[in-house]
């Protein structure tokens, strides 16, 4: 069972924009992991192990005379993303063909209709990185390909891969809640042949895939790219996200060192999702 604890910062921002956008970007650089925009500003969450004193030191927008920003802080055992989501959530549609929604939303007219109850896991399609990983998957022929969704969160990317015709698919997350939530969401979307595991890259030796998708964060990716590549079949593809534009060169350098060619990247609000292929 994961003991993940979060610290929540609840920001009230006036006027809302562009301050909220700047605030989210600066909090992201400071190490905050998740954001839920509200009608008054934004709720930002960071895991206790990543928190340090003076965490807001580099969040310059707080000291700007132009905006009025107040906040409160709370320590949280487990964030109920579902509650956060229901309060602030609209279904999302990516490139007109893939929607991600909750069971309580009306069925949309999209080719791929993914139903997710996120509970406490990341992966509703609202985050830029999930959105762009969905775009990579939509662009790729996955027919019969073996796929790994590393850092699966809600399992949304594994589910889409399967809907796009993927063969046997694994979904791995280090967090117990995400593992359990993925199992539930796989069932909810009637996807067969997705196997979820709780764990990390140490589960990979002995396994191999045609496509590996990993939306995690810069440091974990830099640490684990070598292992991902060892688990890629010849001509295999690797999709990486969870890092900023500034980090793309560093990530690509590590990929090149591990015999991958850069293919392309998407960019949304300074977040990147890049694709690579084994030489
Ligand atoms: C940014 S979320 C991505 C969720 C989902 N794949 C998506 O695209 O929306 C990153 C996920 O990686 C998981 N994670 C963090 N470190 C990990 C590691 N070393 N190995 C596997 N999963 C990890 C987290 O628990 C979290 O669910």
UniProtKB/TrEMBL annotation:
InterPro entries: Ribosomal_L11_MeTrfase_PrmA (IPR050078), Ribosomal_PrmA_MeTrfase (IPR004498), SAM-dependent_MTases_sf (IPR029063). Pfam families: PrmA (PF06325). It is an enzyme of class 2 (transferase). Keywords: Cytoplasm, Methyltransferase, Ribonucleoprotein, Ribosomal protein, S-adenosyl-L-methionine, Transferase. GO terms for cellular component: cytoplasm; ribosome. GO terms for molecular function: protein methyltransferase activity. Belongs to the methyltransferase superfamily. PrmA family. This is Ribosomal protein L11 methyltransferase. It comes from Aquimarina atlantica.
């Amino acid at each position: 069972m994961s003991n993940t604890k979060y610290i929540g910062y609840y920001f009230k921002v006036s006027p809302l924009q562009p301050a909220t956008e700047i605030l989210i970007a600066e909090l992201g650089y400071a190490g905050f992991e998740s954001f839920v925009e509200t009608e008054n500003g934004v709720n930002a969450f960071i895991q206790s192990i990543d928190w340090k004193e003076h965490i807001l030191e580099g969040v310059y927008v707080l000291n700007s005379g132009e905006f009025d920003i107040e906040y409160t802080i709370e320590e949280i055992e487990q964030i109920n993303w579902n509650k956060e989501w229901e309060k602030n959530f609209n279904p999302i549609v990516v490139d007109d063909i893939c929607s991600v929604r909750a069971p309580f939303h009306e069925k949309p007219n999209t080719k791929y209709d993914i139903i997710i109850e996120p509970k406490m896991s990341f992966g509703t399609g609202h985050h830029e990185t999930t959105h762009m990983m969905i775009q990579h998957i939509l662009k790729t022929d996955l027919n019969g390909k073996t796929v790994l969704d590393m850092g699966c969160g809600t399992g949304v990317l594994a589910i889409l891969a399967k809907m796009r015709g993927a063969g046997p698919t694994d979904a791995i997350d280090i967090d117990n809640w995400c593992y359990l939530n993925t199992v539930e969401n796989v069932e909810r979307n009637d996807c067969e042949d997705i196997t979820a595991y709780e764990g990390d890259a140490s589960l990979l030796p002995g396994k191999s895939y045609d496509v590996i998708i990993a939306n995690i964060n810069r440091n974990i990716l830099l640490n684990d790219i070598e292992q991902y590549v060892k688990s890629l079949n010849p001509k295999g593809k690797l999709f990486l996200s969870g890092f900023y534009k500034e980090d793309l060169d560093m990530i690509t350098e590590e990929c090149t060192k591990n015999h991958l060619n850069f293919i392309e990247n998407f960019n949304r609000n300074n977040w990147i999702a890049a694709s690579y292929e084994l030489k």
